[in-house]
Amino acid sequence: MSIKNEYMLDIKSLRAGIAEREILKGINLTINPGEVHAVMGPNGSGKSTLAQVLAGNPAYEVLGGSATYNGEELLVLEPEVRAQKGIFLAFQYPVEIPGVTNAYFLRSAYNEIRKARGEEEIDPLDFLDLIEERMKLVEMDSSMLNRSVNAGFSGGEKKRNEILQMAVLQPKLAILDETDSGLDIDALRIVAGGVNALRRPDNATIVVTHYQRLLNYIVPDFVHVLANGRIVRSGGKELALELEERGYDWLLDAA
Amino acid sequence: MSTAIESLVNREYQYGFVSDIESDTVAPGLSEDVVRIISAKKNEPEWLLEWRLKAYRRWLTMKEPHWPNVTYPPIDYQASRYWSAPTSVKPLQSLDEVDPELVRTYEKLGISLNEQKFLSGVAVDAIFDSVSVGTTMKEELAAHGVIFCSFGEAVKEHPDLVRKYLGSVVPYSDNFFAALNSAVFSDGSFCYVPKGVKCPMELSTYFRINAADTGQFERTLIIADEGASVSYLEGCTAPKRSTNQLHAAVVEIIALDNAAVKYSTVQNWYAGDAEGKGGIYNFVTKRGKAHTNSKISWTQVETGSAITWKYPSVILQGDNSTGEFYSVAVVNNMQQADTGTKMIHIGKNTKSTIVSKGISAGHGNNSYRGRVKVMPRADNARNYTQCDSMLIGNRCGAHTFPYIEVENPSATVEHEASTSKIGEDQIFYCKQRGISAEQAVSMIVSGFCREVFQELPMEFALEAQQLLGITLEGSVG
To answer: N or C: which end of chain A has fewer CB atoms below 10 A?
Structure first.
């Protein structure tokens, strides 16, 4: 390892947008292994854009700045390569794939990631054991495995399914994009429980959320407030509580 | 669509080779003389020649149909050849006598005519241009009383059966292409399963067009006697040629009381090149007649042909009979398909199911055309139709033309339709999970077709899935 300070994720002056509209206007953020960062902010502040850009959604355009992941330039990599290198995005709106079973989809993803690491594909029966164990984390029953990916799932089931995928794929950097939106309190507890169970000293999590509520369950090390495409305030977990009490306006005025 | 959905390859059509086989061909053109020559070459009985001539005379009075949602330049029926047969093929020859070059041709197509290498559990009738070059597993089938042979052989060996059922489901006057076929049909497969017999293996016919400027007009006749059952598969390929070739076949199925026939097609005729030059015009009439308590099921995977015009149908004649149609039709590049089914409910408590999956990519144009007709006496008839279209890219088209005619108030007819587009969001979702764009498309398309693939016999389901992957290569990027 080199002596220089190498973050897991190092975002510098990142600017990005969609359809010729600049949304991120210079984001600076560093993340180390073992940390949980919450990214908060009002609607339209660019939280989801940040998540999508880090995952490589081609609908978004990078306009400037840089992001390195374990020292490697991230923004030039194809989305599947980022995934294979351990970046996982839990989607705010998980996509439906009719006719493709959850089990088949997950096993394909798992095997692709293994192949990229030069490991052998897993035997389908061994995979079944693995997935059944992980399903307990999110309190899903095995009938979900033979249902089509997200098709006809309730909002809560979709979000739990995202966390199940995360539990199976074991990412190094997980980005949860508004995973709490649309969840009732029980589903929220289950989802948060799954995320907490997966926390390890060598992986990091970015929790994108509008509300402080989720952070009662997933306790962050750092909280960042995004407003109008910039991080306007960073702090510890107490910042989230302050936002809960005072709203976002006082920060927007300051920005 | 971004590059993610535009550039997933275009693998070559792998069956586009031409075999160097010495052939006996009839000069291009169509006349009563040509009909007589074909009949004479096959040493046919007088009644069959008469039937052909009636068909020919009827054809002369008919007009080529232009209601399908496809476009092509006028066909010059005098420019095509109506007979081409490898000179080496002798009537009623055994498999050992088949020309080695023909054996090699079929081996390249993945079909073994060598007794030792038969695909286990499948009997094959291999049709090359106008004639059958051999039928495998005949003895074993004969032990069960099952007759499986070329049409020409059936005319000689089982004339009563042929005469009784030929044209009984698709009369020669049925439509323009059926009349043409009835006049000039060359060979095809014949199958008869006797009373109460469950055919012990899959039967299949493999059609190969080789000769240039030659049309293929084969005729298949399948009869399942009372209580009998059979599963039948048809495969087809042709060389890559820059001119269009006509394939106008007729398939007739008769399911007598309590019988069941399952007919599966994996159609992979040459589709023409990316600019739409060449390819087969596949203008085919397929129909079955279902008697009391019987069942006829069509499953088709249509990936080839420049133009497909095809409506495998069931006449639900007997009470409690069942008709099914499961279809995947794929068009890419400049391909056009107008395909679907007809379910005619005549008997009481008849039931039909239609599941159609159309996939359009490139500049392809895909139409589903289906007709559900419930006749006045068909009490409690039921139909369920599901018709789904998937678009890949934004230069292709999908169309649905359902015709529903109900003349009995106790009928239940359901029609569901959907159109979807392989979305950037689906591809990105897969990629974010580590899955490449190609794999994502093949996964999404297979998922879309799942209900149809699961109707295919196991080995063929796999083949169909691979074929779909090849056909769609290049359509996504």
So the answer is: N
